[in-house]
Amino acid sequence: MIYITGDVHSKNLLSWEHEGYGSNAKTSIRYLEILKKYGLSSTLFVNGICLDDEEKDIRKLLDFDVEFGGHTYDNFGNNKFNIFKSYINRKFFNCVYGPSFYQKNDIKKTRISFEKFGLKMSSWRTHAFGSSDKTFEILQENGVKYVSDLLGCTKPFCEKGIIHIPINIPVDQSTIAFGPILNTENRSPFAGCTKGRINPEEWLGIVLDRVHNNEKNGIPSVLLLHPATMAYIDNFRLFEKLIKSLSNYESAKISEFKL
Ligand SMILES: [Zn+2]
Q1: Beta-bridge partner residues of 43
Q2: Residue 194: its pLDDT value, please?
Q3: Which helix (H) or strand (E) covers residue 31, if one does?
Q4: What is this structure's pTM?
Q5: Measured in angstroms, how far is the CA atom of residue 216 from the centroid of ligand 1?
Q6: Does residue 185 carry a pLDDT above 70?
């Protein structure tokens, strides 16, 4: 079983994502069209602010076989100090997502944006995988049951009412080199953004190998493929190649996961 997930960020996020391809909401249409072509379903983790401010574009995504999960309200404040802020959060509050009072407010705001939109927020991924145990507790109080923001080969597990479904396939955005490969020493596919990077084709090979092995061993594969990254690399050519190869496998949405 494969679980294809993507993150949809607000159009105001100041980053390369929006410079050449417009909003993530618009980019996601192409993403979902390709998944539809190959008969695969997916989960998109969407910023609450997108449901409020880009309602028309976001509603179009629901014509496809997709479910929405929460992805914070606006990536911790939605401004150019994001990297600085996540550093401060980690240093002083021991959590990228920030102090508990902030998380409480942000998760509630996201839940309300889902409700106003007419959806129930039952799954979640914190932006930048910035959760702490406190985050999971607050999510549970807000009706979230499924969380997919741990990275690595830990098996899915249930803890304090939350089913954790870790991303066990190397993530596109933190693995692929955008441009020349500078660091040739650390080439771990789970390396962080500042460490080793590999070229897109090499990443594709690793992803397919891993999914194939997981299928052989009855292990679910959880992938994070960002619509913005797939647009940015080569306007979805690599994505279509990957999806075509995955189309032999059965797919499901995060909230369909059974332990
Ligand atoms: Zn994100």
Answers
A1: 5, 67
A2: 44
A3: helix 24-37
A4: 0.92
A5: 31
A6: no
